[in-house]
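INFO batch 0412 | record 1 of 1 | parsing
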Amino acid sequence: MVVVTEEPAAGHNIALCIQQSMGHPGRLLVTIDPPAAGLATLMLGSTRVQMPFDGTGTAMTEALVPALLADADGPDLVVTVEILAGALPPGD
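INFO prediction complete | emitting tokens
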């Protein structure tokens, strides 16, 4: 797993990671520590993917990896995180 960026926000550490394995296009993961309920939204050009955080504080998608790898000069990947106040992540 490669950590692309890590930022502190609202008392949490947020990280964007790329996870690749043999024969698999890869996954984009957004992690939040400590875990919290909320949504990560990834935007790449006109493509928008919303992912809820699970009980471990991880939101994951495979949808954008091929587009990111295919065009290094393409649009920027924009990530936003919405933490739902007062809610616990699923499984807690």
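INFO post-check: The radius of gyration is 13 Å.
INFO record closed
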